[in-house]
Known about the structure:
Elements: E1 9-15, E2 19-26, E3 32-39, E4 43-47, E5 50-54, E6 58-65, E7 71-78
Antiparallel strand pairs: 1-2, 2-5, 3-6, 4-5, 6-7
Amino acid sequence: VCDPAGCTLAIDTTVSVDHVSATVSAGTAPYQFEWNIISGDPLVSFSGDTLTVTNNGWTIEVIVTDAAGCRTSMILTQAKR
Length: 81
């Protein structure tokens, strides 16, 4: 995402059978992750610049802020299986 202030920050997702990973690309490290649980009971963990969400039947909003103050967000969902 590039906005009028010159911020470039994006969230890339990887989806598998048992989890969803959100990895920050571009922007300026370090990154701050926040999340809002919209529904379900997700389990959230961090490793480096990646947030991983497990369990099933959930929806969360992931918000990332980089060291330059740029922010972006994404809604992640995993259906019940």
